[in-house]
Amino acid sequence: MSASLPEVWLRGPLPAVPPLLQPVAHALLQAREELTEIMANFPAEKLAERPLGLASVGFHLRHLAGVLDRTFTYARGAALSEAQLAYLAAEGQPPTHPSAVQELVQGFAQQVDNALAQLIATPEATLAEWRGVGRAQLPSTVIGLLVHAAEHTTRHLGQLLVTARVVVGQR
């Protein structure tokens, strides 16, 4: 994140994003900026390390993209695909090949782009509509899912940041 820019939410409204969904979009864009910065020089061979039993950086990277994909799918009122279920099952086994960090960061960035497109296309009048989550169809709403996606992203980004610093020995 550029030191000369304020946080995303202080840069003004995002064009075409409905006003009630601006905080979701701001949080996702902030996460993308911070993640890109945090992972810029992270060594791929350390993606699977789990210091003190914490979830690995690679897990967080995969989980960040996967959760956005899944929660936004539920917000559309759709069920998860077989590909999404397979991705979920593989989140705990991050790749560690040399280009893995770049691929995972790009995967998250693409999910943020997909999420922004969906936010732009979401009429505010639908935000209170019921949505079922998971096989059990637990009750939520469109706005509940979208806000949860932003909150969950922010939480895992913080965990990733701490774990990445521990793994590479930074203070």
UniProtKB/TrEMBL annotation:
Protein's UniProt name: DUF664 domain-containing protein
DinB-like domain: residues covered: 28-160
Pfam families, per the entry: DinB_2
